[in-house]
Amino acid sequence: MKISDRHIVFQSFSSIGPMLDFIALLPIMALFAGSELPEATIMAFLISLVALAPVIGFSSSRLTNGGYADYVETGLGKFAGGFAGMVYIFYSILVLPNIIMFLASFLFSFYSIPAEFRILFDAVFTVSYLLLMFIPLSRGLSLTIKPIIALGVLEIGSMLLTCALLLSYSSVNGLTVSTGTNFSGGSFWEGVMIGILMFSGGGSGIFLSGESLERRASTPRSLFYAYITSGAALILASFSIAWFTGSQIGVYAGNPAFLLSRIGSIWSPVLVTVMIILLLSSGFNLTLSFGNALLQMMGTFLPEHLGMKKSRLTLSMIIVSVPIPILLVSRIYFSFFTSFLFIAEMVSMLYVVVHVLVGFSYARKGKNPLYRIMGAISSILLVIAISISIMSSGIPELYLGIIFAAILLIAFLNEFLVQISWYQSRKIISS
Question: Which CATH architecture has domain 5-425?
């Protein structure tokens, strides 16, 4: 299948999943940023936009499914490229169980399902979700792109209608306006880090560029359109939520279901049912687009960096199987919602690592002088954001730091062993 502009736009847009972010991540941002939710969303968008600049710069000259791994390799060498590729694989795979955890936890809580059915509900939901995801992923690119576009159009429309509905309501509590954004406050920046996570899929269209029709598709322009559209939608959503919840934004932050419950009490329970259906479709679309990008990337990355080639069917089986032990451990030892919070921040941190490397890579080898400067700036901003977030994390810092460091170490050692193997094979051939 050959890829055109609209395919790349919706691949990137759907990997951000604005409707899912509306329900899942904005309340977590509000948990940290409070009444400064709109400001934290704008800050996250601006930082992510700067971080996207080197990605856009690379995508204008490199049509490859290798994505970030190829971009980092261009400027920082093969070792750094392989390391970035492994980190990307880790954070993409973590995204999939993370979405399942939130959706299962949200539905169980919202519908007040009896506690004795919790294990059964989680098991049935997880198995059904993974199976539904596996079917289109394993069948080929064309079968994933069509639902991604259809669900993406539905998502844009539903986001606009929902925001209009919230803004039309005159809250008796009034809009809670912050007296001044606390840029030195760690809690605010932790909210920003969660916001950066919202935009983490914005560059996933690059993993389709290797299939694009060069004369018809413009990857940089498509990435920009998708990013601006989703950014505008989420900034509008943050203001809409701040207006609608007013002084009760703290209640909303502690209970994501509060928003839908209040909508149901003011307007109609039928509307809530529709929004939950849209939430599920957004979550499914996000996992489908993330899985699609990961399949495209692994199809290029594995042969080039690990010397192995796997069929799409095999890779799809791996992608849907790896989350199972993560889900089991999360379900047995923690709760799905607690694990969701932990993994959400972990994914955000790993995403930052990849984009820091991409930024420095473009700053070193990029063709556009302005983007080279933005690449260096984006890397510095992301390092500052992640440092403040880790130091101020409300999530147990020790566990967060240990697992984060362990993932980076595994990625580093894997590429180290690959490079040794490659060097030895070259040495044998030359002798």
Answer: Up-down Bundle (1.20)
